[in-house]
Amino acid sequence: MPWDKLANADVAFTFGDVILLPGKTEVEPSEVDLSTHIGEMGLHVPILSSPMDTVTEENMAIAIARMGGLGVIHRNCTVDEQVRMVKAVKRAESFIIRDVITVSPTDSVEKAKSILREMNISGLPVVVDGKLKGIITRRDVYFAENGSLKVEDVMTKDVITVSSGITPQDARKIISEYKIEKLPVVDKKGYLVGLITAKDVFYRESHPFATRDNKGRLRVAAAISPFDLERAKALEPYVDLLVTDIAHFHNENVIAATKRITNEVDVPLVVGNIGTYEAAEEVITRLDIAGLRVGIASGSICTTGEVTGVAAPTLYAVAKVSEAVAKYGSSAAVIADGGVRGPAEASKSFTAGADAVMLGFALAGTKESPGSPLIVGGKMYKVYRGMGSPSARSRRFVLDRYSKPSKDIAEGIEGLVPYRGDVATVIEKFVAGLKAAFGYVGAANITEIKIKAKMALVSPIGTREIAPHDVKPMDRLPHD
Ligand code: XMP
């Protein structure tokens, strides 16, 4: 009955409606453990970057994996381009590089020089029929001014090598002792089987909590359309996680298409977006999934709620979905997606049942997001746009994010966000804020905050009191 719908209307709490109450604590913020899981994959930092074309390409994915989170490469591009970006993350760091780029002794120094420049690397092993004969570095080619020189004329022939069984600790010792940048790995017969670089060894040390696979490479996720089996298959050999990127996952056609992907592609899958108990119930009982992207229309660039009147605000959606996940004993991770501007919204998400948060706005202004900063009125900004904005849709690869009748309706905006410097600093601040929140509510980790933290409603008037008020801040960027 129409009146019953109003009389029994659900309460769609949003982040701004609630606060967390302080609780007795036995943990100091520095002791808080923020680690989480998505399927089998462990993350030290429970943050994923949104698969948006102004947020996550390879630079973002590399930076965020180094900080202990996970980047989800967007799909607003050709399959080849997306595969290239995923491979670039995989190549960015690994203990032993297996697909080594090499030259032959009779190649010209000019050729070696251009490979070094184009691939942005500092040295190349020199091989004949796979056997290591030497190594040529930037330093060698830098001083080779005579254009007719060959690689064998300038390469180092007396190369220090190691075998495949070497440990990272031993590789580090050799690299430091001999002050070398490249350490070729050879088999017993002298065939080149890999390469260890000083850069990778030192990165490992300075980022011990980075998200890495069992070969020491950074982990990376990629977005797909549930209807694009071909894209999923092209990504399958390289990617650690696939994430469906569709505005309304609770749709029979979408679920049926996703079933084909889970049957044919052997990569853990996160699906979404969903926003209700019923959607979660259906998805976790029908699909074998690693996680759920949760929240509809809370994103900073979303106009879905405004245009259609339909929304499942992220806090509400996370609480509802988490109830279904608990009831069915599902291991699917709940990922709060949309409207998480900083640690405040993230800690509320965890309290409502989330295992991780997905960030668009909060990362869009960083150095590692695609595009260069713009200067407007003396201040630096970066462009951030919704995947349903007219300009993102004009690239056409994301049109199936939305249902057929709404393909021509903009469901997102394009705008500017303040430039914030590098991702590492943004994530460090975010993590510090989260740890402080966990300290206030007395939770040592994400499991505990779900159980211990309590929420309270605040009135719209009261909201003003719990933010700086009456005093004009000297220089405050939004959410800094
Ligand atoms: P934030 O608030 O972090 O939100 O900027 C990012 C999330 O918003 C979703 N997204 C959209 N939602 N129209 C929408 O309704 C859009 O154009 C759009 N683009 C992205 C997406 O879930 C993302 O992670």
Structural class by helix and strand composition? alpha/beta
Summarize the amount of helix as a percent range.
Answer: 25-40%
Q: Gap between N and C termini, in Å? A: 47 Å
- What is the count of helical runs? 19
Our count of domains comes out at: 2
Any overview of this molecule?
- There is one protein chain.
- By secondary structure, the protein is α/β, with parallel strands linked by helices.
- The protein folds into 2 domains: 12-93 and 218-475, Aldolase class I (TIM Barrel); 109-206, CBS-domain.
- It is 35% helix and 18% strand.
- It is built from 19 helices and 19 strands.
- Strands 4-5-10-11-12-13-14-15 form an 8-stranded parallel β-barrel, surrounded by 5 helices.
- Strand 12, helix 11 (277-286) and strand 13 form a beta-alpha-beta unit.
- Helix 2 runs parallel beside helix 3, helix 11 packs across helix 13 (314-327) and helix 14 (343-351) packs across helix 17.
- The chain is elongated, with a radius of gyration of 25 Å.
- 46% of the residues are buried.
- The model has no long low-confidence stretch (mean pLDDT 93).
- Residues 50, 52, 273, 297, 299-302, 304, 337-340, 358-361, 386-389, 411-412 line the site of xanthosine-5'-monophosphate.
